[in-house]
C-alpha cells in the first residue's frame, strides 16, 4: 500500500467496514491514504465496494466500523455542521450528470457556488450577483462552453453536459474531487474529451482526485496510482506502470463468470 507522508495526507481510511441491512458486506477492512494533489484511479468489478467507499468519504453512507479522516475532519464521528462544511470542499462528478435540465447552462454552473454563497439570488443566473456570473462564465470558458451559456442544459449533448458538470464543480472551489464513473454513459470520443478535461483542470488547480473507472483502457491511459478493490477489500495499491494487463483483467474475471452463470440459469 502506498503511504504518503502524514503532513501531505488529505484522506486517511483505516479498517473501514460497511454492512448493509440485507446482510451484504460491501467493505471489509479497507485502508487507504491519499496525499494532497494526488490522482487515484479506483478499479474493481461491480459490487467490489468502489462507490460505497467514495460515499463513506463524505458520509453519504455511514460506515459500520473503522475511521475516515478527510481534510482533517474525522468523518465517522462528525456532526451535521462539520459534514456540511466538509462537503463544500469536496466536489463530485457523477456518472448521472444531475444538471437541472430545464435551466440554463449558466444557472447550472452558478449552482456550484451555493455551498459558499447560499443566497437565493444564486438560484438563477438572472438574479445572481455579477461576481457569481463572472466566475461561472470563467468556468464555462475553461471547459470550452461559454458560447452555450444561455442554452437550456437539456439542449446539450451528453459530453457537453458532463463538461458543464465539471464547470459547476470548479465553481464550488473544492480541494478534493470524487468522480464516480464520469464517462460511463458517454461514447468513447466524448469520454476521452471529458477525461482529458477532468485531468487537466485538477492538475492545474492542484486538486486531489479519486476517479472510479470501469473501462480498463481509460484506467491504463489516465491512471498513475491505481487502487483496486475485490469483495470489499483492497486487492492492489500501486503505480499503474507496475501493473500487467493480466492483473487488471483479472479484477473482472469473477464478475464475468457470475454474469455468464446468471445468464445460463
Automatic annotation (TrEMBL):
Keywords linked to the UniProt accession: ATP-binding, Cell membrane, Membrane, Nucleotide-binding, Translocase, Transport
Q: Which residues form the ABC transporter domain?
A: 11-256
Keyword Lipoprotein found: no
Cross-referenced CDD domains = ABC_PhnC_transporter
The cross-references to InterPro entries, in alphabetical order and at most eight, read: AAA+_ATPase (IPR003593), ABC_transporter-like_ATP-bd (IPR003439), ABC_transporter-like_CS (IPR017871), ABC_transpr_PhnC (IPR012693), MetN_ABC_transporter-like (IPR050086), P-loop_NTPase (IPR027417)
Annotated GO MF terms: ATP binding
Q: Does the keyword Glycosyltransferase apply?
A: no
* SUPFAM superfamilies for this protein: P-loop containing nucleoside triphosphate hydrolases
Pfam families cross-referenced by the UniProt entry:
ABC_tran
User: PANTHER family per the record?
Assistant: AMINO ACID IMPORT ATP-BINDING PROTEIN (PTHR43166), PHOSPHONATES IMPORT ATP-BINDING PROTEIN PHNC (PTHR43166:SF6)
Protein name as it appears in the record: Phosphonate ABC transporter ATP-binding protein
